Amino acid sequence: MTMINDYMNQLNKLDRQLNALGFCQNLVFWDAATLAPKNAVTPRGTALAEVSELYYNLFITPETDTLLNSLEASKESLTKDEQIKVDFFRELYDQTACIPVGEYAAFSKLKTESSAAWENAKASGDFSTFEPYLQQVIDFQRKYIHYRDLGGHPYNTLLNDYEKGLTVETADLFFDQLRQTIVPLLKKITEKNKQTPAFFTDATYSIDGQKAFSQLILDKMNFNLESGIIAESVHPFTLNMDPNDVRITTTYQEDYALSSIYSTIHECGHGLYEQNISEDIGFSKLATGTSMGIHESQSRIYENNVGRSLAFWQAYFEDLRQFFPEQLKEATPKACYEASNNVKASLIRIEADELTYSLHIMIRYELEKAIFEGVLEAKDLPEAWNKKYHDYLGLTPSNDAEGVLQDVHWSEGLFGYFPSYALGSAYACQFEAAMNKEFSVKEAITSDNLDQINQWLKEHIHRFGCMKTPDEIIQYATNEPFNPQYFLDYLVEKYSDLYAL
Q1: What is the sign, positive or negative, of the torsion defined by CA atoms of 108, 112, 113, 115?
Q2: Residue of 82, 119, 131, 267 with catalytic role
Q3: Is the pTM of this model over 0.85?
Q4: Most exposed residue of 215, 238, 370, 375, measured as fewest CB within 10 angstroms of its CB?
């Protein structure tokens, strides 16, 4: 037993060291996205490549492999939590060790350059300046798939990185179910031709007022500003350094106040997940969300199930109106509810209504699948993107900025991530249904008691970090496996009521 304890102490020390290097990498990423000067791209890329190589050489060694083998051979002597940790690091080791160290470090540098190229290309609306960087990212991901060789569809490897066990076959089935519900529902809504209040788009909302309301909402949602901060970035995101250092960003538009409201709520949902992870896990690589699907469920449940509900507007309409009395003098909570749920085909994913949002995700999923089937290259993406938007939503982007360049994900190599958004929306509805068996979610919102929701999510989801798999989290929180029917029923009920279908 003494030897086993020594082995676990060695693994725990390695965990802390790797997490410390990851902490430093995240600090650089945060700086790059918020405050770093434009000319810092090259030295930042060099620094990140060196740190990535340090990370790799610390982790991928014969000694680490032997340590994990020794622990695996003695699993019966380990606690359940220790077994989970050993399995976690074995999987992480195998995923990393198959990549040559030079390529691992070079990819880190490439992502830095690619992200900067994307930001410049988006500002100019010119995809051609970003294309060569994106092609290099795609080429690396193809090699990565080859190195790991999980079998089956090549895209499965990337899907599994963000949602354990997700495959093209299961994703295709899931999106087919969504399509069968959303497309006819959208057709009925479009035929209604209902006019929705336009005060969020027909007036100017000061950035200062939007910032003040964002701060108020963070307070209502119990985001701990002593363990987190909010800043601005081109594309909103959340960065978890540690449960005591969680950073979120949002974006503000004077001509569309709902953008900042829902970006802030969405990212705060992510942030609460990270802040509520149990201290028992410690300074560890396991002290983060278990998957991107579960992570997105936490942002989506607050953004949509809470933030786009009538109860939300009944509770917080007057708070918003105190910052914008003139713009909202004719508005009511119900009118705000209708405006925030206006169904309309649009080009920008993060500003899409809740119903058509999944169509935006399907487009990205199908494009990514085609890329890793070898059907599409980077140069083909603007045309393919525009065609799918025309086919799915009846719209064609007028420039690349509102088309293929709108998302940061591909510049950072995050292929396989997008399906997590749709899965997260479905998970969120199943979690809300489970929550409603214990208390009324609607009453919690209308009574300005969002902490009741937060505490349920903490108890059933947040505190476990990576100590439970997505399937285990869903089973534990809802007493049943994943069931997308909750999401489909939610959409039909909500929008049938909103549009009197």
Answers
A1: positive
A2: 267
A3: yes
A4: 375
